[in-house]
Amino acid sequence: MTLQQLKYMIIVAEKGSITEAARELYISQPSLSGAIKEVEREAKITIFNRCRAGVALTTEGMEFLGYARQVVQQMELLESKYINNEPVKQRFCVSTQHYTFGANAFVELVRRFGQERYEFILNETQTHQIIEDVRNRFSDLGILYLSKSNESVLRKIFEENNLEFHELFSAPPHVFLRREHPLADREQIRLEDLKPYPRLSFVQGRYESSNFAEELFSNEAAEKSIKISDRAAIVNFMIGLDGYTISSGIFPKYLHGDSIISIPLGEDEIMRIGYILNRDRELSELGEIFIEALKQYQDD
Known about the structure:
The structure is a single chain. By secondary structure, this protein is an alpha/beta fold. The chain has 3 domains: 3-64, Arc Repressor Mutant, subunit A (Orthogonal Bundle), CATH 1.10.10.10; 68-168 and 272-295, D-Maltodextrin-Binding Protein, domain 2; 171-271, D-Maltodextrin-Binding Protein, domain 2 (3-Layer(aba) Sandwich). Helix content is 40%, strand content 22%. It has a 5-stranded mixed β-sheet, sandwiched between helices. A 3-stranded antiparallel β-sheet has the order 10-7-11. Strands 1-2 form a two-stranded antiparallel ribbon. It is globular and about 65 Å long. The protein starts with a helix and ends in a 5-residue tail after the last helix.
């Protein structure tokens, strides 16, 4: 298989459509379909499943694309340095649960890197997608948490996918709510105190369960529940609807002023926040900078 064919595979996966990929690549659809079949025949696997909506990666295809991206990226680095005489363009990608401190650490990474050419990706996404992104080498590392309620299941998944979890810091659970919330004057909040208010949580798609939830105690019954996918929206719903969410309590004030506060949750749990890596990979220099930036929040 050729480098060009690997590039074709990557574009098709990103577009989810052979027609759209062919249009972007300025080649005919039959030529692209033939290239896909040739790679699948040579690799002896099925990379894409065809369906009415387009194409979707198979499990084997996800793993194949992870290695393909690495090959293409390394070739681009070689071309930049030795053929085009350009500064090396660094790529770094993090997939993460929706943590404000994670976004700020990423800003610190970009500031400290300081070079002219780079491609940085911060992918705030669902828990299962974080695992897939790291497993398939789309992301250099993934940020998520373990707790007593999810650890056994997630560690089994890590083992099956050749991933390792590295703990950064632990934090007792806190309730996030607006400063003028009726419970805002409490020194501690219990789960039963939250029952009259809307519970805000992040959508996990077809993996909706307490094992993949970003919020602790997600298996507790709630009369009012709002699921969303955007971190900015969850703040708006806290302010506009007296909603709440349960997380680590780490929330840099300068990103949202004093409009949101966190109050300790009086329940027996701990969030152990960390990162996952492929077992055969070590942290890159950029990864070390990012992790160092994350660690500054462990005393918040």
